């Protein structure tokens, strides 16, 4: 095999490997969604970036896309982007399911909230 053929074969292998590795970055978010409901009490003890599914009520807006969420075990702050509401009105009596992940910030003091990816009515 001459030098040109070897280079062509190596280049082809590198391109195929690079393409395969690049395509593994696509993630099915539905597959990562938790299948069990997490209570507020449990959520407050989880590690950063842990996936959660909360069922309960949005009891009030606290500003800047932050809301107070409550279930039978307690309440916590959740961060919900405006576009996730899909124009649906929600009151403190509207049951919702929130799917997202735990977000922990330690400055200036420890703060645990949920960064919501999906709102189900």
Automatic annotation (TrEMBL):
Transmembrane segments: none annotated. Residues 1-22 form the signal peptide. Keywords: Signal. It comes from the Bacteria. InterPro entries: BOBF_sf, CarO-like. SUPFAM superfamilies: Hypothetical protein YgiW. This is NirD/YgiW/YdeI family stress tolerance protein. It comes from Acinetobacter junii.
């Amino acid at each position: 095999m001459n030098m040109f053929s070897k280079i062509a074969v190596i280049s082809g292998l590198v391109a195929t490997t690079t393409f395969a590795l690049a395509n593994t970055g696509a993630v099915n978010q539905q597959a990562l969604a938790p299948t069990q409901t997490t209570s507020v009490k449990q959520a407050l003890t989880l590690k950063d970036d842990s996936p959660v599914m909360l069922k309960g009520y949005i009891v009030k807006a606290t500003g800047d896309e932050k809301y107070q969420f409550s279930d039978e075990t307690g309440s916590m702050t959740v961060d919900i982007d405006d576009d996730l509401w899909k124009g649906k009105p929600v009151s403190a009596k509207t049951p919702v399911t929130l799917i997202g992940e735990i977000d922990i910030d330690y400055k200036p003091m420890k703060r645990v909230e949920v960064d919501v990816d999906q709102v189900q009515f």
